[in-house]
């Protein structure tokens, strides 16, 4: 089954290099990797991608500055050719060589599949170190906390198109991933399946609490409206 791996990125050279390498180490072969650079002000992201000829590199030309990955994700969805999308963050590693194979093998009608993703410390030891704002939060996504977030997961492309992708009203960090899952579960009636496939989340600085407040407000408004479809489909940004 053809697979498109969706990887938006902004200015994370070290994490991106390791994330791409973990994809290239997979035993499953029928995939394409789409990296969308969300206007990084330096050329380091493109330099990393040039080290891996298999990468499809797309760049968004807009004012530099980290905002929200909704737009680069949508750009990748438009470019994707796979029946299944592997959606992941640029700071997440595939923990084993068969992650794509396992996620795709567990796909069924009526659900999407999420890998178990845990925090790791700066030395990349596969043990939980907790979230900077919540030291007890070791499992970011998985069967224990059952937080259905796409740190690393699989979903049918047609389902992503049905909900309109990621909502581009989120322009500040955060919450677009929660609303994306809400659209899949409450809008389409899909069920998250928590896989034993392992992913590891790399250490990096997090946005400050005041930076994410605008997205919190957008999310609260959308939940109150109860409309489970992203705005702007077909999507507003065209590269």
Task: Outline the secondary-structure elements.
Layout lengths: L2 E7 L3 H12 L6 E7 L6 H7 L4 E5 L10 H10 L4 E5 L3 E3 L4 H7 L5 E9 L19 E3 L10 E5 H7 L12 H12 L3 E11 L7 H17 L14
Parallel strand pairs: 1-2, 1-4, 2-3, 6-9
Antiparallel strand pairs: 4-8, 5-9, 6-7, 6-8
Helix pairs in contact: 1-2
Record keyword descriptors for this entry.
nine-stranded mixed beta sheet, alpha/beta, 7 helices, 30% helix, 23% strand, Spore Coat Polysaccharide Biosynthesis Protein SpsA, Chain A, 239 residues
Structure, described:
The chain is α/β, with parallel strands linked by helices. It has a single domain, classed as Spore Coat Polysaccharide Biosynthesis Protein SpsA, Chain A, CATH 3.90.550. The protein is built from seven helices and nine strands; from the N terminus they run βαβαβαββαβββααβα. Strands 1, 2, 3, 4, 5, 6, 7, 8 and 9 form a nine-stranded mixed sheet that branches. The two termini are 28 Å apart.
């Amino acid at each position: 089954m053809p697979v498109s791996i969706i990887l938006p990125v902004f200015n994370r050279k070290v994490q991106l290099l390791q994330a791409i390498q973990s994809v290239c180490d997979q035993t499953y072969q029928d995939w394409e990797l789409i990296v969308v650079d969300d206007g990084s002000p330096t050329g380091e992201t493109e330099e990393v991608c040039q080290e891996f000829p298999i990468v499809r590199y797309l760049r968004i030309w807009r004012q530099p500055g980290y905002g929200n990955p909704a737009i680069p994700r949508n750009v990748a969805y438009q470019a994707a050719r796979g029946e299944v999308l592997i959606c992941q963050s640029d700071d997440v590693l595939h923990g084993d060589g068969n992650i794509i194979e396992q996620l795709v093998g567990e796909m069924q009608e009526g659900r999407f599949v999420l890998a178990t993703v845990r925090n790791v410390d700066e030395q990349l030891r596969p043990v939980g170190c907790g979230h900077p704002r919540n030291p007890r939060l070791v499992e970011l996504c998985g069967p224990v906390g059952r937080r259905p977030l796409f740190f690393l997961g699989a979903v049918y492309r047609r389902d992503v198109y049905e909900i309109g992708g990621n909502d581009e009203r989120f322009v500040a960090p955060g919450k677009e991933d929660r609303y994306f899952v809400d659209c899949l579960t409450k809008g389409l009636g899909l069920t998250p399946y928590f896989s034993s496939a392992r992913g590891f989340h790399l250490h990096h600085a997090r946005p400050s609490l005041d930076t994410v407040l605008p997205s919190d407000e957008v999310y609260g408004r959308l939940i109150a409206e109860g409309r489970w479809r992203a705005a702007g489909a077909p999507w507003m940004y065209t590269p």
